[in-house]
Write a structure and sequence with these properties.
single chain, 297 residues, alpha/beta, Arc Repressor Mutant, subunit A, D-Maltodextrin-Binding Protein, domain 2, five-stranded mixed β-sheet, 24% strand, elongated
Length: 297
């Protein structure tokens, strides 16, 4: 039984359809369909029930999916065990933040592709937190504070930010002096996140409120410069705003705790060598470029 057929079946089972699996695998829908036909013909059972909405696992398919996933993972580990060096092969699917990915991380992926011409790299840029397991990513790069999860994370570099507001907002509404004061101000946020500040050696957590939200830090910086409220933003995003005076750091007696940039991957004992090498390259990239985040000093 062909390993690619097994991997394709797992992708269809996990995504719920041929089209979604084709996008994940980076192949055409016809190739996915042919692989499914071969594996069902070889087994002599129907693994998937095709519907107008996609493909649903049959009882046999549900049982076979777990075995197929384990077999695919074991073969990948075996390949890396006997080939610990040399060119990387196969496909690497990486999720990156749209805010920083193209500027901070894309050059490393380009260099990785140059060094390993047999490796296929597929990158997805979005500030949305993708589900690595459900959406079939090998890893993701995330910056800031990691949410609790079962993912395995490796820190690749520091990440710094500040609380800022425009001079017009401060003139109209004042500047908060303590974290408790933030509840009376309009906060510009990505969602329903909490903000943390250092009060000496103690971490203070605040649940900000506001009417303007965006899933992109650059959009929040523009909103803050327009006087819509207060934002917690990375230094690399606000550097030019602060230099021009469009944004002003506030509540500086309560600094934001240092965060980090991380490579996160699904749980598993053996990280794929391609993920391990990407992590090493990104870590070295940050070491060679300590001002990568555009810190204002």
């Amino acid at each position: 039984m062909d390993i690619e057929d097994l991997q394709t079946f797992v992708a269809v089972a996990d995504t719920g359809g041929v089209s979604a699996a084709a996008r994940r695998l980076g192949v055409s829908k016809s190739i996915v369909s042919r692989r499914l036909f071969r594996i069902e013909a070889e087994l002599g059972v129907q693994l998937l029930a095709r519907t107008t909405r996609g493909a649903a696992l049959t009882e046999a398919g549900s049982t076979f999916r777990d075995h197929a996933a384990r077999a695919s993972a074991e073969i990948d580990i075996a390949r890396e065990t006997i080939l610990p060096s040399g060119d990387l092969r196969g496909r690497l699917r990486v999720a990156m933040p749209l805010t920083f990915g193209p500027t901070h991380f894309a050059p490393v992926l380009a260099e990785m592709a140059r060094q390993h011409p047999k490796l296929h790299i597929h990158t997805y840029y979005s500030d949305r937190f993708v589900d690595l397991i459900a959406e079939g990513f090998d890893c993701a790069i995330r910056a800031g504070y990691l949410q609790d999860s079962n993912l395995i994370a490796k820190r690749i570099g520091p990440f710094h930010g500040k609380l800022v507001a425009s001079p017009d907002y401060i003139a109209a509404h004042g500047s908060p002096e303590t974290p408790d004061n933030l509840v009376t101000h309009q906060a510009l946020m990505q969602g329903t996140e909490t903000w943390q500040f250092m009060d000496g050696g103690k971490v203070v957590t605040v649940q900000p409120q506001g009417r303007f939200k965006a899933d992109n830090a650059m959009a929040l910086a523009a909103a803050a410069a327009a006087g819509l409220g207060i934002a917690w933003l990375p230094d690399c995003i606000i550097h030019d705003y602060v230099a021009s005076g469009a944004l002003v750091p506030i509540m500086t007696r309560y600094p934001v705790p240092a965060a980090g940039a991380y490579v996160v991957r699904p749980p598993g004992q053996h990280p794929a060598r391609k993920v391990r090498i990407l992590t090493e390259m990104l870590t070295e990239h940050f070491k060679r470029n300590p001002d990568l985040w555009g810190l204002d000093r």
